[in-house]
């Protein structure tokens, strides 16, 4: 038997030489060298990727819902703090009116930068929040007004939901401080 001198592989009359390596097969054809994976190796890699994706997709969806709830809570907190600062700096009251049916809130007499001539309004159902106002309770109303000292007339809570995650925003009665729980 005629061999090519490498691992005792027989020489073929068609110009093919087979070089056995760890995970790839190298084929030489008329001076060119090509590397390839076997079908079994490719199948194993595809199966591993499939198993990993099945395990990680639910967690990824949970993290997206958590991000939405957290983004909505932070947005509400920042806007409530802005209303409080605005009331203190102008020595005049500033209201924040929530609407749980549409998951929106407005700050009357605060100009909206995106819509000149309109009051500042936020729709929590739109990105990046993509959340719902589950409940708003300011002593039975959906409006809280900060006086000229930054103290709310109706302290209370706001609950924002995104899927299985919820965040609660609290306005303290005596200081008007806004916190996320």
Short précis:
It contains 1 helix and 11 strands.
Kindly describe this structure.
With 181 residues, this protein is an alpha+beta fold. The protein has a domain at 59-180: minor pseudopilin epsh domain (minor pseudopilin epsh fold). 29% of the residues lie in helices and 34% in strands. It has one helix at residues 39-90; strands at residues 16-20, 25-29, 32-36, 94-99, 104-111, 119-123, 132-137, 143-146, 156-162, 165-171, 178-180. A 4-stranded antiparallel sheet has the order 6-5-4-8, covered by helices on one side. A 4-stranded antiparallel sheet has the order 7-9-10-11, covered by helices on one side. A 3-stranded antiparallel sheet has the order 1-2-3, with no helix packed on it. The protein is elongated. The model is unreliable at 13-22 (pLDDT under 50).
End-to-end span in angstroms?
Answer: 80 Å
CATH architecture of the domain at 59-180: 3-Layer(bab) Sandwich
CATH class of the domain at 59-180 reads Alpha Beta
Instruction: Please provide the count of β strands.
Output: 11
Give the overall silhouette: elongated
Number of helices: 1
Query: Strand order across the biggest sheet?
Result: 6-5-4-8
Q: Largest sheet at a glance?
A: 4 strands, antiparallel
